[in-house]
Each structure stands twice: as C-alpha cells, then as structure tokens.
C-alpha cells in the first residue's frame, strides 16, 4: 500500500458557506471534487501529519463512500489516527463531543444539515476545530484559498476499512478506531440532566412524540428517550436514518415537520412534541396545540436552565445570533448576566463559549446549545425542556404563558423566499442598503424608523471583525426588520426576512404572531420592494 500523489486542478465554487461546503450530491461525487476540498482542509490547517481526527456524518447518500475516501486521504496525508462513528454515522453534536472528549486535532463531518439528501439532493462537508466547533471564518477562507491553488492531493491506495465493526483497524499505517455512535453522547446527556425526574414523569404517563425525520437522531433519541428514560416504545418516529431521509425534508419547522404538527394539534395530542434535523443539531419544540418559536424556546431555556443539574450553578452569559429575537436578552437582564449578539452561524459562538463568557447560545434557525459541546444540539434542547417540564410539573402552554406574563412577548417570525434569482436578490439587497441614509425619521406602516444599518460584529474575545452580516431596520416602537441572504442553500438565493415586535403585556400577549406582525411585514415589503425585485409576494416557508 502506498500514499499516492494525484495531480488535480482547482474546481470553482469550493467556498464554505454558513456551515461548511454544501453542493448537490452529483457535484460532490464528480471527479476530484471531494478530494480537492478535503486536501484544501488539510492544507488550511497546516497538514494532517501525525494528527488525530474524528469522522462521521448524518448517513445521507454518499456518506459511506465519502468516509472511505477521506480515511484514505487522511492516511495519505500522514494522519496518526481517525476515530469514526460506526458505519460512518455521527450526529454533529456527537462528533463535536468526540473531538473534545478525545482531545483530537479536529474532525470532518459529512452533512448538508437540514437540506434533503439523496442522489439528486444535497451533500456537504464541514471541518470542526480542536475545540469541537465549526471552523471560524479565517480557517474557512484559508480552505477556499487552497482550493483555488490546488495542484495535487494525497491518497492511500489501501482497501476500504470495515466501518461496521467496532474496534481498531489500520489503514496504511494509520489507526482507524470505529466507535459506537451513540454511547459517549448518551453518557454526556446523562451527566447534564435530571434523568430520574424525567424517568418519573414518563412513568406517571407523560406522553411524547419525537420525529427524527428519517435522519441521524433516530438511534440517539431511541437510546436516550425510550431505553434510558422509559418513554413508551414508539415515542420516536421515523427513527431509522435513511440515505434519502425517506424523501422527507429533514428541517424541523412547522412546514416540513407537518406530520408532527398535525399530531400535536390533533385530538389525541401527546404532552410534548419535538423534531430534529438531518445531522441532529437543530430542534423544534411543540406543546399540545402550541408551537414554540426557537427564539422563545431559547429564552425559556435560559430562564429555567438552573433546574437541570448541569446548569444548577447558573449561566455565565447567553448569546444569540443577530436575527434571533431579543426575548433571551430580557431574561439575561433579569438574571444579571451578559447577553451577546453575534452574526448568523454557530461558529461565531465558539470564542464566547471557550472564554467562559456564554453558557447558553441559540438561533432563530432552530438551533440551541450550550458549552457542553461547540455545536448546537437538538436532542440536548429537547432534554433540557423535558427536565424543565419534569421539575416544574406544568404544561408547555402554562410555562409559555407565565414566561410572557413575566417578560413580555417578542412576537417573531421568519419569512423565507426560496430559490430566487441570485442577481435579483443581490440587487434588491444593494438597493435597500443604499436607501439606509434616508430612512431614519421616515414613517412606514404607521411606525417611525429609528435607525438602519448593515450589521457588523467585532468578536469580544479575539477582536476579529465580520462585516455585512445582515440589513437591519429598527423602529422607534422597538419593532425590527432584518434581511439577509441565506448561506446554506444550494440553488439560487434564499431571502430570509426576520420580523419582530415587542408587546410588554399584560394585554395582547396571545395574538397570532402573523397578525401581531402585520405592520412590520407591510413595512418590510414596502421598504425592500420584494415583489418588484423578485416577483414574489408571499414566502415559501414561514417559521
Ligand atoms: C447553519 C448554521 C446556523 C445558521 C443556519 C442558517 O445551520 O450552523 O448557525 O443559523 O445554518 O443559516 P442561513 O440563514 O445562512 O441559511 P445548519 O443546521 O444548516 O448547520
């Protein structure tokens, strides 16, 4: 067996987005495509020689083949060892945990997250750093730079490793340790939450439905919820990860998790519902007949985290992405802790978590997590909710009502306009940005504009600056419009329109969010002229 050096040429478009490189599966399967990008990762981190990595993915189409290629490339680049989830399966938070637990030099995760999987759908590759978190912008930019200069990659010609067998094998002198995909992660969850209290709640008849959407979380949820916590068999549905996610779009929101929504609003609704995405880092939480928005969920988790043993000492601080609602900021103020506002992308939380300045983080895009790993973590959020429900002995609806009564309510919604023409989307954003100097003082939909800017972030830990992170229009009454283009799509552009309005209460706390936000929605369309630029007047997805 030999390490071969294969001549190659740069391939256009290998620029990582919000979370790794995502492309159509046939693109990733094209000649040298995966190899070029993986070599660019190794080159960007100063080579793989003597290093140890974690490797796994969400099981989507091409997962297994890609894992074998990456193993041979790691060997070809002189890596000492790769720790792989059995059958190359690891949820994103489980991979983050293994990177930290084993103090490795990072890890490669195969996933396009919530994007559909299959031969004609999406595939993705991301690199996580030794802290377990997504590579920061400086590193992803270095990957891109290497990808445009690449002339060769290194790969061993050794045969495939049997990834079904737990234990250690060797590949051209490199150790390949195949580990149980679930065990270490389940142990971590057990160390954080009050499992006995949750077990008692299930034993007393508490009913739940967890929709794994035929994606990676199924085996994790079954082991933790059904085996360890005693939830009724069948609590976890769509529990077997499939290469095409059974045709489901594994994005846990009311649109794509419609089966769960139907169950939770039906006559036989269980007490609690939850769903997770392709790679297990997102979560959606639903009470009986009640959808909890991710921004509200983050605020409730922050206000109640102390009820879980792992957070009993309180939170150091909280962080949210800029487009996420300010609901958690109100909780932080009440707790007397710092609240940070970062750009979209989990990678921006890494420094705050590493520095011990934030304990809980969250995003409007169905991501919530803490300093237990350096990724958002779907099942973790569900377990924290279960822990809170078990300790407070109230329904989700009661907890939400009390929360709004105490803190007021940040009505919030996100409208997505998908697969619009990229040039039209960019022109619309540029025109809106250009109009900013003229906006303050103007009245739109009966509301006065107080300020408008393009969000720029200075990392409070390392001072790095990230500009152009989303257009904000702030109103004098506290309402807010944010617009940005998605960094995770693989087709055209997706416009994300984020809408928010604060209601202090005690009146007006139980409106329908779309109704409560009607003037803000009207103002957004008037100011950005969405229909004129894109031809769209209604969004494809509302969350
Ligand atoms: C990724 C990032 C998140 C981000 C989300 C949406 O999530 O990790 O931090 O909020 O994309 O990004 P965008 O609005 O640019 O599409 P995931 O679950 O896809 O990895």
Task: Describe this protein's structure.
The chain has 543 residues and is α/β, with parallel strands linked by helices. The protein has three domains: 179 residues, Alpha-D-Glucose-1,6-Bisphosphate, Chain A, domain 3 (3-Layer(aba) Sandwich); 223 residues, Alpha-D-Glucose-1,6-Bisphosphate, subunit A, domain 3 (Alpha-D-Glucose-1,6-Bisphosphate, Chain A, domain 3, 3-Layer(aba) Sandwich), CATH 3.40.120; 134 residues, TATA-Binding Protein (2-Layer Sandwich). It has 18 helices and 27 strands. Strands 2-6-5-3-4-9-8 form a seven-stranded mixed β-sheet, with helices on both faces. Strands 20-21-24-25-26-19-27 form a seven-stranded antiparallel β-sheet. Helix 2 packs across helix 3 and helix 2 packs across helix 5. The longest helix is centred in the last third of the chain and has 15 residues. The model has no long low-confidence stretch (mean pLDDT 96). The protein binds 1,6-di-O-phosphono-alpha-D-glucopyranose. The site of 1,6-di-O-phosphono-alpha-D-glucopyranose has 17 residues, from loops. 1,6-di-O-phosphono-alpha-D-glucopyranose (G16) binds next to loops.
């Amino acid at each position: 067996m030999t390490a071969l050096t294969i001549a190659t040429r740069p391939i256009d478009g290998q620029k990582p987005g919000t979370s790794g490189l995502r492309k159509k599966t046939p693109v990733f399967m094209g000649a040298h495509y995966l190899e070029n990008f993986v070599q660019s990762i190794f080159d960007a981190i100063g080579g793989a020689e003597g290093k140890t990595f974690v490797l796994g993915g969400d099981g989507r189409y091409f997962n297994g083949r890609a894992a074998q290629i990456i193993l041979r490339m790691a060997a070809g680049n002189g890596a000492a060892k790769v720790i792989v989830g059995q059958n190359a399966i690891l949820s994103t938070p489980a991979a983050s945990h293994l990177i930290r637990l084993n103090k490795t030099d990072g890890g490669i995760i195969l996933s396009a997250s919530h994007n559909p999987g299959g031969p004609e759908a999406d595939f993705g590759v991301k690199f996580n750093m030794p802290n377990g978190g997504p590579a920061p912008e400086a590193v992803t930019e270095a990957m891109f730079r290497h990808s445009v200069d690449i002339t060769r990659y290194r790969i061993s010609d050794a045969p495939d490793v049997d990834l079904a067998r737990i234990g250690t094998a060797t590949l051209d002198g490199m150790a390949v340790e195949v580990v149980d995909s679930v065990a270490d992660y389940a142990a971590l969850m057990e160390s954080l939450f009050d499992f006995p209290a949750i077990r008692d709640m299930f034993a007393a008849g508490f009913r739940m439905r967890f929709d794994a959407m035929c994606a990676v979380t199924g085996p994790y949820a079954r082991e933790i919820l059904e085996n360890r916590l005693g939830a009724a068999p069948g609590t976890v549905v769509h529990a077997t990860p499939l290469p095409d996610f059974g045709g489901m779009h594994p994005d846990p929101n009311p649109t794509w998790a419609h089966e769960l929504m139907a169950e939770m609003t039906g006559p036989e609704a269980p007490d609690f519902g939850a769903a997770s995405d392709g790679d297990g880092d997102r979560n959606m939480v639903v009470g009986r007949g009640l959808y909890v928005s991710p921004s509200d969920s983050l605020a409730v988790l922050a206000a109640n985290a102390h009820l879980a043993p792992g957070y009993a000492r309180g939170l150091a601080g909280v962080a949210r992405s800029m487009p996420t609602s300010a609901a958690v900021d109100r909780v932080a103020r009440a707790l007397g802790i710092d609240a940070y506002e970062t750009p979209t992308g989990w990678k921006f939380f890494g420094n705050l978590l590493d520095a011990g300045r934030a304990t809980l983080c969250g995003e409007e895009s169905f991501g919530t997590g803490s300093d237990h790993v350096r990724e958002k973590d779907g099942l973790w959020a569900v377990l924290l909710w279960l822990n809170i429900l078990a300790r407070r002995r109230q329904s989700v609806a009661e907890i939400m009502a009390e929360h709004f009564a105490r803190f007021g309510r940040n009505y919030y919604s996100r409208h997505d306009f998908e697969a619009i023409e990229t040039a039209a989307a960019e022109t619309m954003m540029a025109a809106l940005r250009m109009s900013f100097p003229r906006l303050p003082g103007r009245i739109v939909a009966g509301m006065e504009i107080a300020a408008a800017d393009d969000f720029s972030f200075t990392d409070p830990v390392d001072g790095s600056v990230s500009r152009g992170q989303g257009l904000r229009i702030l109103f004098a009454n506290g309402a807010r419009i944010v617009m940005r283009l998605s960094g995770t799509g693989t087709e055209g552009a997706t416009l994300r329109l984020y809408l928010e309005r604060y209601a202090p209460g005690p009146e007006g706390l139980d409106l329908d969010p779309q109704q409560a936000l009607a003037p803000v929605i009207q103002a957004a369309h008037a100011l950005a002229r969405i229909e004129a630029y894109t031809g769209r007047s209604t969004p494809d997805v509302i969350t």
